[in-house]
Structures are given as structure tokens and as C-alpha cells.
Amino acid sequence: MYSLTEIETEGLHYLELVSTNGESRAQICLNQGGRLSALIFENIQILADYHPSTYKDNFASAILFPFANRIKNGEYVFNKTNYKLNCNEATKNNALHGLVYDKTFEYADSILNSNFGAVTLRYNENENPIGFPFKFNIELTYKLSESGIRLSVNVLNTDNKGFPFTLGWHPYFKTRDLYNSHLNFNSSISYLVDDHQIPNGEVSFNETMPFQLKDTNLDTGYKLVDNQVEFLTPEYQLKIEATSVNNYLQVYTPPDSNILAIEPMTGAADSFNNKMGLQILNPKDNYTIQWTLTIESETTNTTNHLNK
Question: Going by DSSP bridges, is the β-strand pair 172-174/259-265 parallel, antiparallel, or unpaired?
Fold first, then answer.
């Protein structure tokens, strides 16, 4: 039977899903935007083990809503009205990673049986956030099973007017050997950016897949052709699949060794201005997306992928 445990440490409140055999566990931090703060799968560390005190700088596994990545100068126009968000990326004068990454989520529900464990968290925005004066509810459901983990995000517009949005997720993945790890995804476009990491053009992307990550520094956005991204490492193979129609990707190699951020998004950076992937959620409507992480620990699959 999968189990769910509450943990409180260093002033933070966590929920932890654990598999029947104890070899897989997913830890979720309620105080830090309901993020997936740790993931062990079949005794293999999948997510980078950042201390929670660094979350304000790395946004590890943050849920990005109502915008993913950056909004230039925190400014945008919607329905002929000018809005100004707080610029929490002071060095570049951008609004960064949405408005729920630092909110406290509440436990809502759970399902625990011999096949999987799932927990649902909820945050209700009933105020008028600076630069985004709209009310909404957001629910996160994490489902841990023998194939990996799935994150479902459901957003309900509880306001009397529509609002613009994109959604994203910001996990950092750990491997013992990034030099001999590979990425595999289908894209024909990567985005050029200015000095503030705001898209200002695009170029053709024709990298042979899967491409090796040795000696590679990335902080690059892509428009995906389909809904899948693979991360192939010496100790595990991971596939991220999204249910969204339009899919974008940000890939970032932080200064930390053997760590890679793979960020699936429904829109590009600065989407409130460039409209790339931007959607409108009307009053009382909801939007749901699922990101499924299928994980295989057998290293023999790496050779099969590379020989395709």
C-alpha cells in the first residue's frame, strides 16, 4: 500500500508519498508553491537535492502560473489595459516565474492503494495580486506509481472577467554524469534573447537527436513539434509527456555540476507581450494540463535510443 506522511522541518510543511516497497518517494513542499521538492525512484535520485533555503534563487520544481519564465519589465497590455507586475528578477528588471511559486497550498485530498499514491493540493487566490488583478483557484495532483510520477494542474477562473495565462514547471534533474547524458526532443525553432533573457527573434534548430550534453551550456527556449522530451542518463531514462496542444521548452544548465533544468511550458518567455502560446481563461472556465514523467532505471535502454 502506498502511504502519505506529513513532515515538518525548518519551518516548512511537507507531504511525502512513498511506494509500497519503500523504494520510491515523492516529497512536496506546501509552503513553497506546492512544489515537488524531492523525488527518489527505485532508489535513484531523480531531482537535484537543493536545500529549501535556496529555492528563492533557483525556483526548483516551481509551478509557473499565470506566466512561465519572464515578462519584460513586468509590463503588459490586456484588453487595452496596462498592467505592471512586481519585478522579482531585479538584475534584469523582469517579472519571473509567475505568482504562485511562493504561495502556501493546502491539502485537499488523497488516494492511496497498492498501485499508486496520489495527493491533491489547492490554493485559492481571492485577492487582487499586483499586476494581475484576477481571482482563481489552482489545484495540483501528484500521482506516484511504478512507472514514475504525474503532475496534474487544474486552474479555475473564479473571477467575473477573463485573464491571460501560460503554465510551466521548473524541475532540475540530477545525474551522476551529465557529460555522458543526452536530450531528445523534436523542435525546428530556438529563440534568440536579449541581455535580459527576453526573446527577440528565432533561428532554425536542426541539432541531431539525441544530442550529448558534454561541454554544453544552455539557457535556451524552444518551440516543440510534439509533446515529448527525453532525458537519457547513465542511471535512468526519463520521458516527459504533456497533454497540452502547444508545447514549449526551456533548458538550463546551472553552475552546479551534473544538474539540468528541463522546463516544459505552454507558452514562451514574455508570452503576455509576444503572445506565443498565450491563452485566455474565461470566467468560470477551467484549464487542465498533465505532465507525466515516465522513468526507467535500466541502463540498457540508452544504447537502444542512441542506435535508432
Answer: antiparallel
Residue 158: count other Cβ atoms within 10 Å of its Cβ.
15
Predicted TM-score of the model (pTM): 0.94
Determine the average pLDDT of the residues in 23-41: 98
Helix/strand/coil percent split, the chain, to 5: 5, 50, 40
CATH hierarchy code of domain 3-306:
2.70.98.10
Strand order through the sheet with 3-9: 3-9, 12-18, 25-29, 35-41, 44-45
Task: Pick the closest to residue 33 from 98, 117, 91 (CA basis).
Answer: 98
Q: Sign of the C-alpha dihedral, residues 191, 252, 11, 36? A: positive
Residues recorded for the chain: 308
For CA atoms 130, 61, 54, 97, give the dihedral sign.
Answer: negative
Break the chain into its structural domains and give their ranges.
3-306
